[in-house]
Amino acid sequence: FPETHGITFTIQISVKELLDTDVLLKLLFRLPVNYPSILPDISVNSDQLTRAQCMDVKYKLLEQAKKHLSEPMVHDLILWIQQHLKYVVKQSATVCDEKTTLSKGTSTEDGIWMLLLHLDHMRAKAKYVKTVEKWASDLRLTGRLMFMGKIILILLQGDRSNIKEYLILQKTSKVDVDSSGKKCKEKMMSVLCETKVQSQHKRFQTFEVKEFSTLDELQKEFETAGLRALFSEFVPPLLK
């Protein structure tokens, strides 16, 4: 439904005694017209928390909201998060403390996921590549768009919610042209793998488009990123 329906408002609350600091939470509630029989949409921001922790808070608030369905709930949700914030971020907080003692790069953030997609073809290649680059940049995703012979792979890393958002864009936008030159949606895409980034995987710092002339070169690109297993499981079958 359009943004004009329902109400959107932001509430700032300060939560005391979390890791000995006050945490300022910005909670944005979008109440649909049929609220409270439909859940509100909630966004969480805080300078003191990581993105992963903000996502944790959001999911926990939505879980609570389900318990209050069909009764006004915003006030209850705010009281609940004031009492429970320290428990919600405690798990994430221990991850942060460990991270500082480990050398950088050996630990991965809570919410970082990886997606490997296979595209059948790109007719309007230049435009398609530009679109993928823009989406990756808008959604703060890193990784590679890789061409090798007829194989086209997109490997992405980023927040799980942003990865999901990317998939929606990839499936619903007119990204290519059909044989008659008309704009069309991507119908020949397969999701080869969607998984949490593990500590042995290296994080891509940027999103790059690369062309490879041999399978060996492509394999090296995966191996450099600690993704040898991913390569051997999903890429060779595409050559058959």
TrEMBL record:
Domain RWD: 1-88
GO cellular component: cytoplasm; nucleus
Single GO biological process annotation from the record: positive regulation of protein sumoylation
Coiled coil: none
PROSITE patterns cross-referenced by the UniProt entry: RWD
Subcellular location: Cytoplasm; Nucleus
Pfam family, one: RWD
Keywords for the protein's UniProt record, in alphabetical order: Cytoplasm, Nucleus
CDD domains: RWDD3_C
Protein name per Swiss-Prot or TrEMBL: RWD domain-containing protein 3
